């Protein structure tokens, strides 16, 4: 139970820091590597870099949750 409380506390600290510094961070969808193609009646948005970044972040979170779960 103690490990879980520590992990939850660390997650809250990280979320708090993100909320404080969010105006300075590039938002997903506006990162270099995100492709936007615009034509007259057509708009294609491919968030390649944002998808990779979110995937890495979620993988790390689930890795640490699974590691400390035991």
UniProtKB/TrEMBL annotation:
The chain crosses the membrane at residues 5-24, 44-65. Pfam families: DUF2905 (PF11146). Keywords: Membrane, Transmembrane, Transmembrane helix. It comes from the Bacteria. This is DUF2905 domain-containing protein. It comes from Pseudochryseolinea flava.
């Amino acid at each position: 139970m103690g490990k879980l409380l520590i992990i939850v506390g660390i997650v809250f600290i990280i979320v708090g820091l993100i909320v404080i510094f969010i105006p300075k961070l590039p938002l997903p969808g506006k990162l270099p590597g995100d492709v936007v193609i615009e034509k007259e009646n057509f708009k294609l948005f491919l968030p390649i870099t944002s998808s990779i970044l979110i995937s890495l972040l979620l993988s790390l979170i689930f890795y640490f949750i699974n590691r400390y779960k035991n």
